[in-house]
Amino acid sequence: xxxxxEGLQRMLVILNxxxxxxxxxxxxxxxxxxxxxxxLRGYSGVTQxxxxxxxxxxxxxxxxxxxxxxxxxxxxxxxxxxxxPERYGQLLQNFDLLNALEGDTNLRTYVLxxxxxxxxxxxxxxxxxxxxxxxPVVFRYTLVRQGDKxxxxxxxxxxxxxxxxxxYLLAYEGDVLKxxxxxxxxxxxxxxxxxxxxxxDIDAGELFRDCxxxxxxxxxxxxxxxxxxxxxDGKFLKxxxxxxxxxxxxxxxxxxxxxxxxxxxxxxxxxxxxRSRSLEVISPPHLRERVRKVYEEALKRNE
Length: 303
Description:
This protein is α+β, with helices and mostly antiparallel strands. It contains 9 helices and 12 strands.
């Protein structure tokens, strides 16, 4: 396991360097950068052969090809996949922190970490393998909103997505791409004697652009939402926006007003309620009424 962790960290370091502003990274510069970064993590010894092996692993794990330009005598990412991870630096930082906290280190004596990680699921390794090798999967699935009814599913797995400390499988059931909570999957079986053609035209960025949370429900319209908070809550919403579409309309000592554009899902409403101390829904009216009813029912329960 130690070698595997070391290799993963080294690959993330390589990606972090190659994702920089420069088109090409000279050979010796990349070797020095990787060697120095790994030395800070307690490892030593980075050879040309090690890098070449890592390049192959990066292509296998991340789907990113690294090339070498003879004229520039430097490495570069051949094709920028717009759906590939964009925040290698942050990923590396979080990985290092969690790895350090769980290892034999004094870091835990001054860092109080909340392990904000997805809840474990035994089926994840099987799902990853099925996605990688394009095998359909069969499982029994619990429908929580239908009184824990259990249905058998056969789907074509395409992605795993993490949201709110849970893993979700994005898979085609028939012609429809659906989300399945990994924690509600049981009796999973990979159909290793079958394969399917994976849909590579899915724009993952667009898929979740208009949603909050795990799923972009196409039957719910995209709407403009205007919200008002006090200045204190406004400070938090400026540092951590509610949604990528957030626009600040008013920002003064009396109020903080924003507009977002998205689908008003249950996940979004729950997020609004989490900062309800000063929240006022300005529009649309149906969202204002929905939030009012939640407050009204909560008040009755807690009288």
